[in-house]
Amino acid sequence: MFDPTRAQARRFFFDTWRKYQQREVLSAMEGMALDVILLHPEYHALLDDMERYQDKDYLPEMGDTNPFLHMSMHLAIREQLSIDQPAGIHQRFERQLARTGDAHAATHRVMECLAEMIWQAQRSQSSFDAGIYFACLDRGGEE
Asked: Measured between alpha carbons, how far is 38 from 36 in angstroms, rounded to an integer?
């Protein structure tokens, strides 16, 4: 299983951005990452400055959003959708898409639910629970 360190995951995004800017050939995974990067122009300046941001800590309690975690979650959701795992995620994404009318907004809604499930799994020291994930998605954003 692919399990990069924090530094490796961040380096992947920095390298993908650099290769894109230098018009180098991208791997399939880099191409997917580039699609995510291009959806987030607010991260482009950060990706231009690896020296400054490679080791930066992002603290939620200080109101920080971790751009690397955010982009990684985009990639995780794309992978889930491509193979419909957990089974039923694709159908639930389509419902979110119908509600929002925008794939990026629908992905962000799925991301909120994925983050909730991960948080609950960490808190209870349990594993991935599709039931929690899907219950959140099935609420449809009307919390």
From this structure: 5
pLDDT tens per residue across span 64-115: 889 999 999 999 999 999 999 999 999 999 999 999 999 999 999 999 999 9
Q: What is the mean pLDDT of residues 108-124?
A: 91
Question: Residue 14 in contact with residue 54, Cβ under 8 Å?
Answer: yes
Pick from 101, 89, 68: nearest CA to 131: 89
For residues 121 and 131, the answer to whether their CB atoms sit within 8 Å is no
CA distance 47 to 54: 9
- State how far Cα 6 lies from the chain centre: 14
SS3 for 69-99 is HHHHHHHHHHHHHHHCCCCCHHHHHHHHHHH
Mean pLDDT of 12-32: 97
DSSP code of 108?
H
DSSP 10-67: HHHHHHHHHHHHTT----HHHHHHHHHHHH-GGGHHHHT-HHHHTT----GGGT---H
Tokens of 114: 């994925």
